[in-house]
Amino acid sequence: MLELLETPSAMISAAAIEVAEPAAGQLREAGLLIAHGHEPVAVSPASDDDVPLPVIRLADGSLGVFDAEHGPVSIEPERLMMYRVNIPAFLGSMVEALKFVLRHPPHELVPGVIWDLGSPRFFRSSIHSLWFVRRSDRPEVQWTLKQAVESRPTERLRVIVTSSRSVEQGERPAGVIVVPLEELLLSPDRLSLSPEFLGGRLRGPPEGKAPDRLHLSADEGGLMLGSAIIIRLRSPDRRAAIRKLLSTSASGGWTRATEVTSDGSLRRFFGPGNWKKLQPLLEQSAEGWRFRL
Residue 185 forms beta bridges with which residues? Predict the structure, then answer.
C-alpha cells in the first residue's frame, strides 16, 4: 500500500495486482482498493507482439484493441481494470487504533496530496492537529506542504504522517513534526498507527532515560539535553543546522561551518547567547565540528 501511495496517481492495474497477490487481493477485500476505469493501452492477446495498442470501444460494445493483423480484438474487462486507493477508507484504517472518529469525508487540503484528519487526542494533556500527505519526499510536494502549513497557522503541534519512507530534512515551520507512516504501524500487515509509537515520537526521550543525550524537541523548536531545552530554534536555518550536526555527530562524522553558514562562523550564525550554551557541547577538529554525544 505504501508503494502504491507513492505513485503519482495511487492507482494499480489488474495485471500488476496479479503479480502482487495475495496482498493486493486482501486490500481489495478490505475496500482499500476500488475499481476505477481501465488501462489506456494493452497488448493484443491475438498477437505475439508485445506492442501496446490503444484500448478502444469495439462495435459490439466491448473493450479491446485494433490489431493490424487480426482486426478488432476483444479483451476481458477484468484484464483491463484499473484500481485506485480508496483514500477515505485508508485514512479510517490508519487512525483506527487511535480510537479517533475520522471526519467523513476527510478534509482534502490539496487534491490527491494532503488531508486534514482533525484533532485526535493522543494524550490526556495534549491535542494535536493530524495531517496525512503523500509523496512528501518530492520537491514539488515539499513546496506545496510548506505553503499549506504556513497558510493555516495553529498554536497546537501539527503532526504530519507521510507515506514516504524518508522525511525531507529541509525547512519546516516550528510546531510541525513529519513522521513516516511505516515507522508508526502497529505491525507490518496492519495499516494502523500505533498509539504507543506515535506517543513516543511526540514525547521524545523519556525523562530519566539517557539524560546526557542531545536531541531535538518533537516540534524541532529547541535543542534538548534530556528534558531540558538548551537553546530555542526559531529559524528554519538554525533547525536545519542542528539536524545536520546531530546526524553527522551520531555517525562519527564532522560538519564544516561552511556547510551551514556562508560566512563560516557558527558563533555568528547562532548568536553570542546561544553560542555560549552550544560551544561546551561541541568539539572541533581540522575536519569541522561535532557534538560530544
Answer: 193
